[in-house]
TrEMBL record:
Quaternary data: Homodimer.
The name this protein goes by in its record: Enoyl reductase (ER) domain-containing protein
Example GO biological process: formaldehyde catabolic process
GO annotation, cellular component aspect: cytosol
Taxonomic lineage of the native organism: Eukaryota, Viridiplantae, Streptophyta, Embryophyta, Tracheophyta
Coiled-coil spans in chain: none
PROSITE patterns from the UniProt entry: ADH_ZINC (PS00059)
Length: 374
């Protein structure tokens, strides 16, 4: 493989050619980085629910090189890149932070106007550094981690300590951090409060972890998979609800566990439309706050007006409200110091060549995260 930043690299990558089409691992060409870009040799990646929806129509650009969670080493840099050098360990992000635009300085949102989420699957100059047999390939958002090499704009990567566990670094590049940030930065969970988390995948477990850090005293995890009880407890869950064990609704079960008063905060992490209403109904009248995190392929079903009419708040969340430089760097530091039990997430591992197996593993009840070794 070439090491010169001026040469095209041929490598393997996982590609989806269209909605519902099988994922194939093929040889692609990765161009050298342009002025403000870095080319990254991936160390490992992991599978997030958004990778599955990327094969089902979100955001709808094909052919696409999959993957947006991962960690790698900078192989080469563009001539205007000053903040990174060859050999730096980095994780990709799909949100940038200029620290100067109206949104960045407002303190109200993590959605930077200068470096926005890239739904086009292309670089900021609307071109691609990836191709196959002369045909342009797209990214998932701003990166493509299921490839041995990828190129990203320097404003969409974060340098991390090289001693960080690669698998754990991959987990915090999206899933876990999204949930953690939703509790920390979006809801700003208060000490002594009560919390309900619907869906105990990496995102939900991150929300539990964030709520615990902030001092929530009652943290209710909800999942139809009984095996998630142990995972939830490892991250700080105090109570568990399996909706399959009762004919009552999720919101009723949460109400029973909270002395009939419901909870202060709820986090909907599944993207299943009817559960948004349940998540709202599970919070207190007048003051309850629901953070919608899960992304599904179905349109959201209109919720009962009473769910929100009685003073509850519903907020959407992208990347848990985390800013790349200001906030994700703090999580990365905590990860490097092993302050989170992220080993609990690492349940399965596959090679890039065997990527299709990852989709089958995710259907198994004991599967939390699948790590892809490059």
């Amino acid at each position: 493989m070439a090491n010169s930043s001026s040469e095209v690299i041929t490598c393997k990558a996982a590609i989806c050619w269209g909605v519902g089409k099988p994922v194939t691992v093929e040889e692609i060409q990765v161009d050298p980085p342009k002025a403000t870009e870095v080319r990254v040799k991936m160390l490992c990646a992991s599978v997030c629910h958004t990778d599955i929806t990327s094969t089902q129509g979100f955001p709808g650009v094909y052919p696409v090189v999959l993957g947006h969670e991962g960690v790698g080493v900078v192989e080469s840099v563009g001539d205007q890149v000053k903040s990174l050098k060859e050999g730096d360990v980095v994780i990709p992000t799909y949100i940038g932070e200029c620290q100067e635009c109206e949104n960045c300085v407002s303190g109200k949102t993590n959605l930077c106007l200068t470096y926005p989420i890239r739904l086009t699957g292309l670089m900021p100059d609307n071109t691609s550094r990836m191709s196959i047999r002369g045909q342009r390939l797209h990214h998932v958002l701003s990166c493509a981690t299921w490839s041995e090499y990828m190129v990203a704009d320097v404003n969409y990567v974060l340098k991390v300590d090289p001693s960080i566990d690669p698998a754990h670094a991959s987990f915090i590049s999206c899933g876990f951090s999204t949930g953690f940030g939703a509790a920390w930065k979006q809801a700003k969970v208060e000490s002594g409060s009560s919390v309900a988390v619907i869906g105990l995948g990496a995102v939900g477990l991150g929300a539990i972890s964030g709520a615990k850090m902030l001092g929530a005293t009652k943290i209710i995890g909800i999942d139809k998979n009984e095996m998630k009880r142990e995972k939830g407890e490892a991250f700080g869950m105090t109570h568990f609800i399996n909706p399959g064990d009762s004919t009552k609704s999720v919101s009723e079960l949460v109400k029973e566990l909270s002395g009939g008063r419901s909870v202060d905060y709820s986090f909907e992490c599944t993207g299943v439309p009817p559960l948004l209403t349940e998540s709202l109904e599970a919070t207190k009248v007048g003051t309850g706050e629901t953070i919608a995190i899960g992304v599904g392929t179905e349109p959201i079903v209109p919720f009962g007006i009473g769910s929100i009419l009685y003073g509850r708040t519903l907020r959407g969340s992208v990347f848990g409200g985390l800013k790349t430089i200001s906030d994700l760097s703090i999580i990365a530091n905590k990860c490097q110091k092993e302050e989170f039990p992220l080993q609990e997430l690492f349940t399965h591992e596959v090679t890039l060549a065997d990527i299709r197996k990852a989709f089958e593993l995710l259907k198994q009840p004991n599967c939390a995260k699948v790590v892809i070794k490059m």
